[in-house]
């Protein structure tokens, strides 16, 4: 091995990491200020924006966008975080298990969808009514906002001789006005407690969300993303300026390796389907929300998706986190003692 190349590679990776960190701090700070300034303003009613939103919703219902699908295995951004076996069953159009949702769960989903629409409206209002807004919504050729159904698209790929296509849509594409760069915008909600987005429980973007962004990057040619997490639970109204933060902001830039890994995964599943060869499953971390539990079990799967097993795996991961946190704490304490000596 040429060690000089190894050191150059490491140096480049370190440079990219440092550059990404600085860029991330810049963009997340700008996004936070963007929302904070807008939500500090008195309530505004903009008739033109309200009409625009309603007209676009009506147009989407009357004339839905029809992407140009090919006769190829199709994957979505959510495929990035799915088990290969689940994707295999989906390509084969196997029967799904009956999905039972309780009333409170449907309200949970309803509330999240409503907040998504409200945030998109906030973005339109903010670019119009803030002085020198740091972000503006990218527009399609017809002037409509670049988000959701407006940018719904399908794109063919070939990875090592295997053809497939990726289909999907995302929360939005923004322009960062200081330099004109294109930024992917992903908005997520948390519905349990405000602590769910606190510094202790949320250290970074959820891994599954990062994996989806990798697919969005390939589908929409976007290199940078800002993730905004909002807690639907809020602190006490009386807390005023001492209230806990209800929004968190994160930056993410998919790497070339991550993009290659997603394409390789899609190609592997597509090839497995062509050969009718059942892939191995990833138990139990991918099983809880899988809609193919019955057929998977018939194919010699596992009962690892049982709630007890899933809970046990969750506890194991939490214990692992605690162990690593304690190790970091001990190392930091050791460094402090060494400095004193």
What does this structure look like?
- By secondary structure, the protein is of the alpha/beta class.
- The protein starts with a helix and ends with a helix.
- The strands form two sheets. Strands 2-5-6-7-8 form a five-stranded mixed sheet, sandwiched between helices.
- The protein is globular, with a radius of gyration of 23 Å.
- α3 (84-91) crosses α6 (256-275).
- It is built from eight helices and eight strands.
Throw out a few tags for this protein.
341 residues, alpha/beta, five-stranded mixed β-sheet, disordered N terminus
Short description:
The protein has helices spanning 3-39, 47-62, 84-91, 103-129, 207-220, 256-275, 293-298, 307-340, and strands at 74-75, 135-137, 153-159, 162-168, 172-176, 181-190, 224-231, 247-252. With 341 residues, the protein is an alpha/beta fold.
- Which regions have little confidence, pLDDT < 50, spanning 5+ residues? 1-9
- Report the C-alpha radius of gyration, rounded: 23 Å
Summarize the main sheet. Answer: 5 strands, mixed
The spatial strand order of the largest sheet comes to 2-5-6-7-8
How many separate helices? Answer: 8
- Got a strand count? 8
- Helix-strand category: alpha/beta
Q: State the shape.
A: globular
What percentage of amino acids are in beta strands?
5-15%
- Ends apart, CA distance between termini: 41 Å
- The percent of residues in helical segments reads 40-55%
Question: Secondary-structure element order, as H and E?
Answer: HHEHHEEEEEHEEHHH
Instruction: Report mean pLDDT, rounded to a whole number.
Output: 89
